[in-house]
Design brief:
By secondary structure, the chain is mainly α. The protein has one domain: Methane Monooxygenase Hydroxylase, Chain G, domain 1 (Up-down Bundle), CATH 1.20.58.1000. It is built from three helices and no strands. The longest helix has 37 residues. The two termini are 21 Å apart.
Length: 93
């Protein structure tokens, strides 16, 4: 996906670290399924992964609002706001 603007997001390291942890956790869930672990345990762990992913999305959204959207408002770039609206619609489905 092409990036229309070129400024640094301040939460990139935090997002990457959390993504790495979520990926590791999801690998753990996969192993649980392979081992035939109790379905209730697997579902609880899947819920934890979903929560982690949602929290990552919240960090990205806040970073986007604080930087991209603020810049867009200052420069009158309505496309950024339209793109944000589309992204939020997809994120909360």
């Amino acid at each position: 996906m092409e990036q229309a603007h070129s400024h640094r997001h301040t939460e990139t390291k935090k997002v990457i670290d959390r993504l790495s942890r979520a990926i590791g956790h999801l690998e753990g869930v996969k192993k649980m399924v392979e081992e035939g672990r109790d379905c209730s345990e697997v579902l609880i762990q899947i819920a934890a992964v979903k929560s982690a992913i949602n929290n990552i999305g919240k960090i990205i959204l806040q970073d986007h609002i604080n930087h991209c959207v603020v810049d867009a408002v200052e420069t009158g770039d309505k496309k950024i706001l339209e793109d944000l609206s589309d992204a939020i619609d997809k994120f909360i489905k």
